Amino acid sequence: MAASVDSRPPALIPVNRLDRAKGRLSGLLTPDERRELALSTFATVVAAVRAAGWRPVVLTSDPGVRAASPEDALVLDELGAFLGLNAELEGAFLRLQPAFPQASDARLLIIHADLPLATGEAIRELEMAAAPAPSATLVRSADGGTNAMLLRPPGLFALAYGKGSFEKHWAASEAAGLRRVAVESPGLALDLDTPDDLLTLLAMPSAAHTTAARLLRGWKIRERIAAAKPTANG
């Protein structure tokens, strides 16, 4: 499937199936809650991408995610769950290539869908921090992942999402001869994978207005986490 004409640069947002979303929170949240949380952060990221002037390109096989995508988004079906995220993303890039003006001007943002603090301003700051092409500009998550990566142009090194992906992307982009920038971004650094991530979000006064924080407060997540912790005598 070729990308339709749109002058905005593409922001590739991979989204897991909602029945598998937030698996590390399965002992804390119900399946319906995990689905709702995943959709809320997806909506936040999509809104941030659009506000920053990028076109959302949603990579998913889930009909619920497709239905939640805005009309101006390009939705790409996954090629097959057995391929893994890196192969899926690289396959999506190949399908997007016709939309790029020319290789020297091409840029691609890859951004995760579970960033509750994402804003258009945070993405614009990422752009402003980027070095001239060829370059890779990365945002590191607390656990060493890569929450956002701006590639100018994409396709110059193999993607390595998974455990320790930030260091792998950093090394691979250096080996490919790219200029590299690591960006400290409060709006893009926090993802929601673990109970500690949820507590971090709830402890941030600036996050009180976010959809994800409102959901978590309504579900009394602090109380649930406290009740799940073993006692000193346990």
What does this structure look like?
The mean pLDDT is 92. Helix 1 (31-51) crosses helix 4 (120-129) and helix 1 packs antiparallel against helix 7 (211-218). The protein has one domain (10-228): Alpha-Beta Complex (Spore Coat Polysaccharide Biosynthesis Protein SpsA, Chain A), CATH 3.90.550.10. It has a seven-stranded mixed β-sheet, with helices on both faces. Helices cover 36% and strands 16% of the residues. Helix 2 (63-68) links the parallel strand 2 (55-60) and strand 3 (74-77). It has helices at 31-51, 63-68, 85-96, 120-129, 165-175, 195-202, 211-218, 221-228, and strands spanning 10-14, 55-60, 74-77, 108-111, 135-140, 146-152, 179-183. With 234 residues, the chain is an alpha/beta fold. It has eight helices and seven strands. It is globular.
Please provide a brief summary of the model.
The chain has one domain (10-228): Spore Coat Polysaccharide Biosynthesis Protein SpsA, Chain A, CATH 3.90.550. It is 36% helix and 16% strand. It is built from 8 helices and 7 strands, in the order βαβαβαβαββαβααα.
Distance between the termini: 56 Å
- Report strand order across the widest sheet: 3-2-1-4-6-5-7
**Main pleated sheet:** 7 strands, mixed
Strand content: 15-25%
Give the helix level as a range of percent: 25-40%
CATH architecture: Alpha-Beta Complex
CATH classification, class level: Alpha Beta
Radius of gyration (CA) equals: 18 Å
Global morphology: globular
In the predicted model, the low-confidence regions spanning at least 5 consecutive residues are: none
CATH topology title? Spore Coat Polysaccharide Biosynthesis Protein SpsA, Chain A
The helix count comes to: 8
Secondary-structure element pattern, one letter each: EHEHEHEHEEHEHHH
